[in-house]
Amino acid sequence: MVDLQSILAGHRSKLAREKSSDQNPKVYSPSFSEIPDIFFDDILVRYKLSRSETLVLMYLYRKVWASNNIFKKHGISQLLSHTEMANFLALPIEDIHVALRKLEEYAFIEIIRSGQYFVRRYFTKDLDDRFEQTYDNFEN
Question: What is the pTM of this model?
Protein backbone atom coordinates (compact mmCIF):
# COMPACT_ATOMS: atom_id res chain seq x y z
CA MET A 1 0.00 0.00 0.00
CA VAL A 2 1.24 3.49 -0.93
CA ASP A 3 1.58 5.89 1.96
CA LEU A 4 0.52 9.52 1.86
CA GLN A 5 4.09 10.85 2.27
CA SER A 6 5.29 9.23 -0.98
CA ILE A 7 2.29 10.60 -2.90
CA LEU A 8 2.85 14.14 -1.58
CA ALA A 9 6.58 13.96 -2.27
CA GLY A 10 5.94 13.30 -5.96
CA HIS A 11 3.29 16.03 -6.27
CA ARG A 12 4.20 19.45 -7.67
CA SER A 13 2.14 22.50 -6.83
CA LYS A 14 0.34 24.54 -9.49
CA LEU A 15 2.80 27.42 -8.97
CA ALA A 16 5.76 25.13 -9.60
CA ARG A 17 4.14 23.86 -12.83
CA GLU A 18 3.49 27.44 -14.01
CA LYS A 19 7.09 28.47 -13.29
CA SER A 20 8.45 25.50 -15.25
CA SER A 21 6.16 26.27 -18.21
CA ASP A 22 7.35 29.92 -18.17
CA GLN A 23 10.93 28.71 -18.54
CA ASN A 24 9.99 26.81 -21.73
CA PRO A 25 8.13 29.40 -23.82
CA LYS A 26 6.23 28.26 -26.89
CA VAL A 27 8.09 28.58 -30.14
CA TYR A 28 5.87 29.91 -32.92
CA SER A 29 6.69 29.18 -36.50
CA PRO A 30 5.74 31.84 -39.04
CA SER A 31 2.74 31.27 -41.21
CA PHE A 32 1.79 32.99 -44.42
CA SER A 33 -1.47 34.18 -45.91
CA GLU A 34 -1.79 34.81 -49.60
CA ILE A 35 -3.14 38.28 -50.36
CA PRO A 36 -3.46 39.40 -53.98
CA ASP A 37 -1.03 42.14 -55.02
CA ILE A 38 -4.06 44.11 -56.18
CA PHE A 39 -4.69 44.93 -52.51
CA PHE A 40 -1.36 46.74 -52.21
CA ASP A 41 -1.26 48.16 -55.74
CA ASP A 42 -4.85 49.31 -56.11
CA ILE A 43 -7.05 49.06 -53.03
CA LEU A 44 -4.70 50.80 -50.58
CA VAL A 45 -4.07 53.54 -53.15
CA ARG A 46 -7.69 54.06 -54.22
CA TYR A 47 -9.33 53.75 -50.78
CA LYS A 48 -8.09 55.60 -47.75
CA LEU A 49 -8.67 52.85 -45.20
CA SER A 50 -8.15 53.56 -41.53
CA ARG A 51 -5.97 51.27 -39.45
CA SER A 52 -8.99 49.53 -37.91
CA GLU A 53 -10.66 49.07 -41.33
CA THR A 54 -7.48 47.50 -42.71
CA LEU A 55 -7.14 45.21 -39.67
CA VAL A 56 -10.77 44.07 -39.85
CA LEU A 57 -10.61 43.54 -43.63
CA MET A 58 -7.43 41.47 -43.37
CA TYR A 59 -8.87 39.49 -40.44
CA LEU A 60 -11.99 38.62 -42.44
CA TYR A 61 -9.97 38.00 -45.60
CA ARG A 62 -7.75 35.51 -43.77
CA LYS A 63 -10.80 33.77 -42.26
CA VAL A 64 -12.35 33.31 -45.72
CA TRP A 65 -9.45 32.88 -48.14
CA ALA A 66 -6.40 31.80 -46.11
CA SER A 67 -7.85 29.51 -43.43
CA ASN A 68 -9.49 26.13 -43.76
CA ASN A 69 -12.99 27.21 -44.66
CA ILE A 70 -15.67 24.97 -46.15
CA PHE A 71 -17.44 28.05 -47.57
CA LYS A 72 -14.36 29.38 -49.40
CA LYS A 73 -15.78 28.91 -52.91
CA HIS A 74 -18.75 31.07 -51.88
CA GLY A 75 -16.53 33.74 -50.29
CA ILE A 76 -18.30 33.36 -46.95
CA SER A 77 -16.63 33.36 -43.56
CA GLN A 78 -17.69 31.05 -40.81
CA LEU A 79 -19.73 32.56 -37.99
CA LEU A 80 -17.56 34.96 -36.05
CA SER A 81 -17.87 36.62 -32.68
CA HIS A 82 -17.37 40.39 -32.75
CA THR A 83 -15.93 40.18 -29.23
CA GLU A 84 -13.46 37.50 -30.32
CA MET A 85 -12.44 39.64 -33.31
CA ALA A 86 -12.03 42.73 -31.09
CA ASN A 87 -9.88 40.79 -28.61
CA PHE A 88 -7.72 39.28 -31.36
CA LEU A 89 -7.18 42.66 -33.05
CA ALA A 90 -6.86 44.55 -29.73
CA LEU A 91 -9.50 47.04 -30.84
CA PRO A 92 -12.56 48.35 -29.00
CA ILE A 93 -15.79 46.67 -30.11
CA GLU A 94 -17.11 50.06 -31.28
CA ASP A 95 -14.17 50.35 -33.73
CA ILE A 96 -15.00 46.88 -35.06
CA HIS A 97 -18.61 47.91 -35.74
CA VAL A 98 -17.58 51.17 -37.44
CA ALA A 99 -15.00 49.36 -39.58
CA LEU A 100 -17.52 46.70 -40.62
CA ARG A 101 -20.03 49.37 -41.71
CA LYS A 102 -17.35 51.23 -43.69
CA LEU A 103 -16.10 48.04 -45.39
CA GLU A 104 -19.67 47.24 -46.37
CA GLU A 105 -20.07 50.76 -47.83
CA TYR A 106 -16.99 50.10 -49.99
CA ALA A 107 -18.57 46.74 -50.99
CA PHE A 108 -15.49 44.79 -49.89
CA ILE A 109 -17.78 42.70 -47.68
CA GLU A 110 -21.49 42.02 -47.34
CA ILE A 111 -23.00 41.18 -43.98
CA ILE A 112 -25.12 38.05 -44.38
CA ARG A 113 -26.15 38.10 -40.72
CA SER A 114 -24.39 39.25 -37.59
CA GLY A 115 -21.02 37.53 -37.52
CA GLN A 116 -21.14 36.01 -41.01
CA TYR A 117 -19.69 37.82 -44.00
CA PHE A 118 -19.35 37.53 -47.75
CA VAL A 119 -15.80 38.68 -48.57
CA ARG A 120 -14.77 39.33 -52.18
CA ARG A 121 -11.63 37.57 -53.38
CA TYR A 122 -10.41 40.67 -55.23
CA PHE A 123 -12.05 43.22 -52.92
CA THR A 124 -14.34 44.96 -55.46
CA LYS A 125 -16.88 43.67 -57.97
CA ASP A 126 -15.03 45.20 -60.95
CA LEU A 127 -11.78 43.50 -59.90
CA ASP A 128 -13.61 40.20 -59.34
CA ASP A 129 -15.02 40.52 -62.87
CA ARG A 130 -11.59 41.41 -64.30
CA PHE A 131 -10.00 38.33 -62.73
CA GLU A 132 -13.05 36.16 -63.51
CA GLN A 133 -13.80 35.38 -59.87
CA THR A 134 -17.27 33.97 -59.28
CA TYR A 135 -18.96 32.83 -56.11
CA ASP A 136 -21.35 30.07 -57.22
CA ASN A 137 -24.12 32.60 -57.89
CA PHE A 138 -23.94 34.09 -54.40
CA GLU A 139 -23.52 37.62 -55.80
CA ASN A 140 -26.59 39.84 -55.90
Answer: 0.75
